[in-house]
Amino acid sequence: MNLMEKSIEELHELLMKKEITSDDLVTESLKKSHEVQDKYNAFVTIMDGSKGIESTSELLSGIPYGLKDNFSTKDVLTTGSSNTLKDYVPFFDATIVEKLKDKGAIFTNKTVLDEFGMGATGTTGHTGSVKNPWDPSRMCAGSSAGSACAVCAGVYPYAIGSDTGDSVRKPAAYCGIVGYKPTYGMISRYGLFPFASSLDTVGVLTRSVKDAAIVVDGIKGIDSKDMTSWDSSKIELFNSIDGNIEGSKLCYIEELCDIKNYPNPNDELVSHLKNFNEVLDKIKGLGIEVEKVSVDKKLIDSIASVYVVISNAEATSNLSNMTGIVFGPRENSEKYIDMIKDYRTKNFSPLIKRRFVIGSYVLQAENKDAYFFNAQRVRRLLVDEWNKLFEKYDGVILPVGSGPAKKLEGSRNFLDENTVALEEHLQVGNFGGFPSITIPDGFVSGLPVGLNITGKCYDDAKVLNIAYAIEDLLGYRGQIAKEVDND
Questions:
Q1: SS3 breakdown of the chain: % helix, strand, coil, rounded to 5?
Q2: Which is catalytic among the residues 7, 72, 143, 144?
C-alpha cells in the first residue's frame, strides 16, 4: 500500500477517517526499516517493539518518524554513531523527543550519522557507511545521512536531524528531499549531543515544505533547559504557508553561480549550474524579483576555513567529557591518564581525532588570536555581509553543492579547491543562525540536485512560504528514491 510514501497531512486524514490505523503505519515503517537497512545501512537501532496508538487531532499523532542517533532517548541505545558510546543507554529524553511523544508521534528507528555529527559524507559512523537509495555507489552526505536516506526511501514522512554546517540541508539535496534548519534557538537542543554550540541547530528532513512546517511547529518553543531557545509561540509556520509570494525579492551570488569562475569544470558541475540558472528563470514567473549580487571572493573563500576553526575548537571543548570514566567502554589501565588516553585513542575514528588536534591547536594561548579569534572576526564579516543582503532581499537563493551525490569510493578526497566555496556556503546559515531550507530542483546524471533559500533570523515563515511556492512550481514534492543505473 506504501502508506509511508504519503505526506503527514494525507496520513492524518486517513487516520481521522478510520481508513487506516496507527498500527498499520508502524508495521509498514518497521518492515521498510529492515528492507532499507539491508540495502543502505541507514539505522543504528530499529524499534521492533513499537506499537501504534489511538490517533488524536494532532497532525503528528500516530505517525512514525526517524530520530538521528545523537538525540538522547530514555532507555534506548544512543550512540552518536561512535564506538565511544556503542553501549550507552540514556536515562532521559531530549526535549524534542518529549514534545513528539506529547504529540503522539512514534519513532521507529535511530538513524546513522557521521561520528558525533562531525562529517559531511555519512561514512564515519561506527556501523559503516550509509548508501544513497538513488544510487548505492553514492553517498547521502552527512552528518544526517541515515535520516535523509530513510525519508527518501519512504520509511516515514519525516525524520529529525541536526545541522551544524549543512548536516540537514546537504543530505536533503543529495537525496531529493527537503531539509530545513530553522532560526538558531527556535528548537531546544537539550538532549542533543553537542558538537559546536554556537552553530548546532535541530532540523528536519521531509518530502515537502508543508511537512517540514508541521514538524517544526510541533517541536519548537522556549525551553528552560536550553538558554539559547526563545519564544516562537507567535510564529505559525504551517498556517502561514499560502504560496502567495508576489513581490518577494531574492538574490544569488555571482561568484558562486557563474560557471566561468570554475576552471576546468566537470560535466556534473556544468549541468548543475545550468539547471540552477534555468530554475531562476522559471521562478521569475511567480512574480519574484531575482537579482544577481557580488560578494568579495576572498570573503566567500574563507567560509570553509572559518568553519573548520570554530567548529573544531568548540567540539574539542564540548567533548572533553568523553574520557571513558563517566560513560563508555572503560579501558583496563592502572592509571587514569592511561585509561583516558587508551579510550580516546582506541575508540575515536581518525576523523574525530584529527578534529580534536585542530581544535586543541587553535585554542592554545599562543595560537588563539591568530586562528580562533581571527575566525570569529571573519565570521562576523560574513554574517554582516548576509545581513546587508537581507536589508534589500527576502532571501539568498543558491545551488547546493557542486552537483549530485558524490561517489562513496574516494569519498575522503571529493572536495576540489575550486569548488570548496560552492560546497560549503551553507555554513553561513549556521554562522548567522539564519533560517535555511533546501528543496529539490532537478536532476543531474539521473540523480537529484537541490537549491537552498536562506533568510534573515526569525523570518522562517517567509522563507518557507517562498520555498513552498517554488516547490509547487518545480513539481518534485513528495518524490521517493528510484535506483538509477549509472554504469
A1: 40, 15, 45
A2: 143
